[in-house]
Structures are given as C-alpha cells and as structure tokens.
C-alpha cells in the first residue's frame, strides 16, 4: 500500500515523535510540510526503514519540504509531566518553530492537545498512511538517534549507539552494573523484574 497525502486542507503539516518507549534520553518530535504532489518510493514509517534509508530520506525531506522543524522535550520534562505530555510538548515546540502557522495538522497516534486555533486530526498508524507524517517520523527518529549517539560518546557503557536508550537486555544489564545516569528517565521502570 503506498502512502498518500492527506488533503483535507491544503498545506497540512504532518507531526510525529520518536523515543516515547525509551528509558533514557529525550523524546523528539518533528513537523513537516511537503509540497503538493510530493512522492518518493521509499518514504514510509521510519520503523520500517533501515538506518541507511532513513538517512537518505532525511536529506530528501530537508531539501524538498516547504517547511519542517524538529524539537524535543528533555528527560527532566518527561519525568516531571509524563511521557505523553512531554511528547505533545515536543510536538508543540516543533509547530512553533515552523516559518508560519499551518492551517491544519495531522498527528500520528490518538492523543494530542490543541495548539492555538490550528485544527488537527489524530491518525492511528498515520506514519504508515500519510506522506507528511512518515516524513515527520523520519526526521524525529534520525535527529533523536544522532542525539543518542552523542550521549553514547559521553557514557559508552550503556551502549546507546546500539539501543538508542530503549530497554534492551544489554541496556538493563548496564544499569545494574553502572547504576542510573543523569540521562535515564527515573519515572520509568528501568530494570526488569
């Protein structure tokens, strides 16, 4: 099934996040406005693409998009306001960074809070249905991965270059061995039972 533009409105902006399921690091969000008629054979939900394809597509999106922005909510914010609210905060920050307010938003998932007077639709699995949400998923994912690589340079024993902060067995063993870092989400369950 090929992805399509939404076209409920002209110039709708796709929104998605990356990193909600991690136990370390921030949550990132992206907002993308693609030109009418934009197509790319490989554009899809970032989770379905290899790292190499995501990297190639990020360059295409950044070159071809009429507008895009990427932002994040910190680990501290996640622990203070919870991951859902932090994800929405990151989305709002990305929208705020756009050159001009879009007429309509299409948001991946089933939860969102209004941003000003901008109308929106929440779309479950939207990143595998609509081009602009897929593009946002790729930007959010690649920017977050880059950030986690930089944290890996600081603390290599957590293997964030491989797990990107997600709760893998190796990551949890590293927490048991080295303790919790300042980048871990203390409101999350860090260790398995």
TrEMBL record:
Natural source organism: Elysia marginata
Summary of the function given for this chain in its UniProt record: Endonuclease that specifically degrades the RNA of RNA-DNA hybrids.
Annotated Pfam families: RNase_HII
Keyword Repressor: no
Binding site for a divalent metal cation: 16-17, 108
Family note: Belongs to the RNase HII family.
Record note on cofactor: Manganese or magnesium. Binds 1 divalent metal ion per monomer in the absence of substrate. May bind a second metal ion after substrate binding.
Name assigned to this protein: Ribonuclease
Catalytic activity: Endonucleolytic cleavage to 5'-phosphomonoester
């Amino acid at each position: 099934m090929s992805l399509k533009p939404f076209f409920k409105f002209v110039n709708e902006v796709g929104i998605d996040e990356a990193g909600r399921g991690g136990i370390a690091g921030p949550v990132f969000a992206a907002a993308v406005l693609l030109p009418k008629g934009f197509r790319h054979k490989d554009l899809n939900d970032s989770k379905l693409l290899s790292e190499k394809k995501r990297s190639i597509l990020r360059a295409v999106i950044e070159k071809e998009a009429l507008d895009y922005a990427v932002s994040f909510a910190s680990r501290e914010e996640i622990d203070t306001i919870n991951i859902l609210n932090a994800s929405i905060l990151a989305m709002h920050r990305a929208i705020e960074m756009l050159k001009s307010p879009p007429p309509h938003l299409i948001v991946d998932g089933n939860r969102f809070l209004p941003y000003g007077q901008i109308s929106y639709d929440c779309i479950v699995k939207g990143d595998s249905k609509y081009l602009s949400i897929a593009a946002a998923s790729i930007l959010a994912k690649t920017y977050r991965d880059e950030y986690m690589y930089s944290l890996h340079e600081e603390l290599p024993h957590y293997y964030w270059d491989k797990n990107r902060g997600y709760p893998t067995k190796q990551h949890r063993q590293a927490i048991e061995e080295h303790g919790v870092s300042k980048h871990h989400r203390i409101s999350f369950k860090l260790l398995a039972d």
